[in-house]
Every structure is written in structure tokens, then in C-alpha cells.
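Q: Could you fold this chain for me?
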Amino acid sequence: MQRSYTQLLDRIREGQSWEDWAADYVVATGANVVPLGLLRDVLASLKPPFGSIYVSSSAETTIATKDVFVKVAGTTAAVNLMNFDMPSDNRLRYLGSSPRHMHVACSIGMTAAANNQITHWRIIHYDASEDSTTQLVHSDVQRKVGTATDIGSTALHCDVMMGENDYLELWVSNGTGTANITCDYMYMFALGMIV
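A: Sure. Below is the predicted structure, expressed as C-alpha cells.
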């Protein structure tokens, strides 16, 4: 039974050795060599997507309601993008055509407009295929900022399945009150793995 081009690519993605894959290709197609164009496509499909953004100019995030998450304010810049872009501030969008399991890491430095504020941080995931936003509660971290001049820091990690045009953002809430929070420093990185 002949295998389709996609089935052959899937076998490589699933970890089949190159030797076994090439032998399967020859049996499946009747060819005695693997075309260079096909090998190029296989290699391109295996390259992991990655992308990162950082705060280039911080701004105070307005907290209107205690314990309600809002998108972190400020200007961000993108670095090291492969199948990702940054269409707006604090937004890392996946552009790949096949779904990927993403590992997300984010480091944060913050200040608060009042003393003794409990800051909560979370990654959100926008799913373009469903046109819905999900707060990734498994990414939650919190950090108490003792005085308004303290610069607190924390880091968070999470994972998420992402499809084409899905994006990630960093959100914050104040667990103490409505004092505004500034994300002075932030670096968010996503790395995709084949599933």
C-alpha cells in the first residue's frame, strides 16, 4: 500500500530513523532515490518554531479591580523569531501551519504604586481557530512587592498547544487592592516541539 507524502513526513516527525524512512519512501513510491525537494521539505517541517519579546519601554498597568487580570502595558520589542511575529505590544503570535506543543518561559521585574502589594502574573493563550482566549492558570505565579520602590522579580513557565495565528500575552492582577503595577522588565520566550 502506498503512503502519501504527508504520511511519510509524519513518520519522520514521530521519530523514525532516516534510513528506515528512506527505505519506506522507496517502497511507497517505487522510486530508487529520495528527491532533494522532498528532503528539503522534511527538514523545513522539522525546524522548531521559536520567538521572544521583551519590554523595551515600561508603562504602568492600570488595575481597576482587585484580583482581575489585565494585559500588561508597555512597549515590547521582538527578537529571535522563527515562525513567530509580534503584531502588537506584549503579543507573541505563532505563524506556523502545523500545531506545535510550546514551552513558554517568562521572567518579570515589577514595581507597584503602593506598599505591600501581592502581584499575580499569568500567560494567556488566544486560540485563533476557536476565536477564544484562555488564561493559562498553570502558569500562575505571585510576588509581593514590599515598598513602592522595591523592584520585585519572578519567573513563570507553562506549556500550551498552539495553531496558526494563536498568540500569547502576559497579564497581571493585584491581589491586595487596586494599586497599579508596572512591568519594568519582561522577557518571554516560546519554543515549539513537534507533536
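A (continued): The chain has three helices and twelve strands.
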